[in-house]
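Re: the 181-residue chain
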Amino acid sequence: MKESINHFQFSDNPEFAFRLIVRSYQEKVFRFISLFVGSKSECEELASDVFITLWNQRESLHEIENLDNYIFIVARNKALNHLRKSLQPTIDLDELNVDVFHNTTTNPESIYISQETVEELNSAINELPQKTRMAFILVRENKMKYKDAADILGVSVKTLEKQVASAIEKLKNKLRSTRKK
């Protein structure tokens, strides 16, 4: 994605390049912010703020090495700042129902997964502890590198690896136990 930044920075049409970046990241940023903020309208507003920040910093984007990492860190900071400023009580992320298959594409392997299995898996993912669930979603759904996801979550790579491994083990056990019933 470094090419996008360079293209965005040096393009004769930075608005077009910016639209491409927004189109590529909009849904991912929204879903990531929704891990922190429960209101759909607040998530949409914060996601817009992320892209406004990106647009306002377009002149210095050539200094950024990893656009994925940068965008998710901006999104995390926007969400955390919003929660700090908000007079509303913070939401329990363990209570949120996150549909991790919302933004996936169909492939031949996924066609064979029944709707019941998808619902069981979503339920099991939602039962994971907050940090474990966030680690799992960043690495598995967003296909982010462990180092980048660790930077976003503010943990070491080893901690993130343990969280993802723990999530996978818990999901396997949960699916095994529901299939035996």
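The two ends are 46 Å apart (CA to CA).
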